[in-house]
Amino acid sequence: MTDTPDDIPAVSEARAQSRLARAWDSDVGYAFRHSPVAMISAIVTLTLILAAVFAPLIAPHDPFNPATLNLLNGLTAPGVPSAFTGETFLLGTDDQGRDVFSTILYGMRVSLFVGFAAVTFALVLGVTLGLIAAYVGGWTETIIMRIADIQLTFPSILVAMLIFGIAKGITPIEYRDQVAIAVLILAIGLSDWVQFARVVRGATLVEKNKEYVQAARLIGRSPFVIMARHILPNVLSPVLVIATISLALAIIAEATLSFLGVGAPPTEPSLGTLIRIGQTFLFSGNWWILVFPAATLLVLALSVNLLGDWLRDALNPRLR
Amino acid sequence: MLSFILRRIFQSVLVLLVVGLVAFAMFRFVGDPIDTMLGQERTLEDIDRLREQLGLNKPFFIQYWDFLVRAVQGDLGISYRQGRPVAEIIAERLPATLELALVSGALALFFGIVLGIFTAIRRDGITANLVMSISLIGVSLPTFLIGVLLIYGFGVGIDIRIPFTDMTFNTGGMPTFGRGDTGEIFGWTTGFATWDGIQSIILPAITLGLYQMTLIMRLVRAEMLEVLRADYIRFARARGLGDRAINFRHALKNTMVPVITVTGLQLGSIIAFAIITETVFQWPGVGLLFINAIQFVDIPVMAAYLMLISVMFVAINLIVDLLYVFIDPRLRVS
User: Fold this and answer.
1) Reported ipTM
2) pTM given for the model
């Protein structure tokens, strides 16, 4: 690329711009700037992610350090000073005197971590298997896609529950809480790889007969390099859409499993665990322990979902 | 046509065999059943006797075959936790789940189709757009949250001041726990026999059906809009047919094909999502049984549930596929 003429204005101008600026100027960037829904949901998602990442800095209390808890603060309503200590809590406290706002920040951390990790796992597994199935073909393809078909017959939440149950049975009792998060990631990830594999296989079947792939094959590049360096970049845009939508689904799946008591351990509560705990206070009128974590989960899932929907439309050339 | 049916049946049997293998592998490799079933004060003779009795000393594939044969005959093992035959426990619990799934399926289908037609015909109306926006939230709302919110709104209840008076009105009072009183109709233990039972099924059924309803509604709307653009609809209009005849007799009929397929496939999801609804409302069905089995690592119950669910799913898929061929004549030719 050294002989590209730098004196052509358009070329030098494009070079001067950063990657981010180029993304902003691209078709997708244009669609983004002209969609208020996309802008708002992106801002909300980003804010929530940042809040979760910097939870230790933002949270007014450390909900998992018993030394900082005061039982006298228990069940304080939001914004109202506690009857015993006079302290005020933005979103109230639970029965142990834990600040609900802080537990939500820490809970979101677990939810988002499990969500991102599970989607990454599903993505790597699905994309790899999809590429191999399409590129190699034959028996390999038949076996991979048949397994995918069988798994697709069952709802992913059921598959995740089952994997969770089996993993729980295999691990000895004393380690169960420690590995629970990892098992959760494994279960949600394994229940979600099929989507990626099918899309990548479909796109790869089209790409692998194109001239640039034949050219790469002719100059003797190995199948691995062709798959990873040549085909993969060209099939990534639908993968991005599925990854976004999968993230929303993974967050909901995690919350559901934790809510049902087969997910995150009590030592590391996620949003689902918080809702599970909050539900027990419903009948005693302490609504804030339930409502705020539930609202956070809803806003998080909805904004990621809207972002995914928008991305699907923006990247779909037929809709332009 | 015949080869298509045979191929589909062959595939279904294959799926069931694979699922059976998974279920069997769970028995074999997850924990030691001897450990689980015998207490601490066991003797070596006890262990040998039980191992012989359970057939654990035979080769893997013979055990698998025995397992399949017994499963087909309805012997699904003994629950580690309750110490009773799993088949008996499931038979006790299944009616509750089926009732719940049927009621919510019917609700979802009815309201889904009605609202779908409505939003398609009045696509620019304010009400229709409102319904569409709300349905978007319905899709994003996890099932368990819908359940919890319904319990809060209609079980616990919110006090609403009646304007200009001092009286308040509480929205709660609906049963939110269990099946209520059950009675027997033709030997089938059912909640429909009593008023309490009928009241008890309302909130769980709405919880379970809401997601499917939004799905069906959006599908009907999309299909309907597609069909309404077709040439034969324009021709029907040119012939001077009324709106009612066009919308319902011509458009709706052609919308129904994909709706039937999706609804059929969703029936499986309803049974799966019943796990969540049953846990929220402590509905004594097989889903709640499954969740408790996972919590206590009750392998025989987990395996039995897995097999039961897969038989249902595979059967539903098969029936839907075959129905599709009968409904859509174009598929019969190829």
Assistant:
1) 0.78
2) 0.81
